[in-house]
Amino acid sequence: MPTNFEHRLVLIVPVANVAAVVSWFQTNIGSNSIPNDFGPGLSPTGNAPITHRWCSGCFNDIECKAIMLRLCNLSGVTPPTGPEWAGWNRQQKIIWLESVQTAMRTNFGIWVTLSLNDGVWNNPEAALATMGLQRVT
Prior knowledge:
The protein is α+β, with helices and mostly antiparallel strands and about 140 residues long.
């Protein structure tokens, strides 16, 4: 069945930045777009204290563009222009994000993956391994 939600995001955010990200999402994407605490807790050891939180969601192209713009602004990364984003196909958007992912992580501590919402999604476990994090149990 077709969906308007063509992009799937996995986001990992340091706890110090969670409130800013949650507030922006709930104001600009929708009040129920992400949980109030952003999602499950993570840490390097899998034990408290929680150092990061993560969530995953599906978004339409307009929402995804807005999210990427905000994450770029928070990370000090130059976002794609409106015409660039509009001219790129979905795979080109993924390639662009991969090209700025290290800067986003270095500058704001956020890890974000973008995949096509077609049932073949990025493995969130790979993102956890990259970040050196485990679920807090």
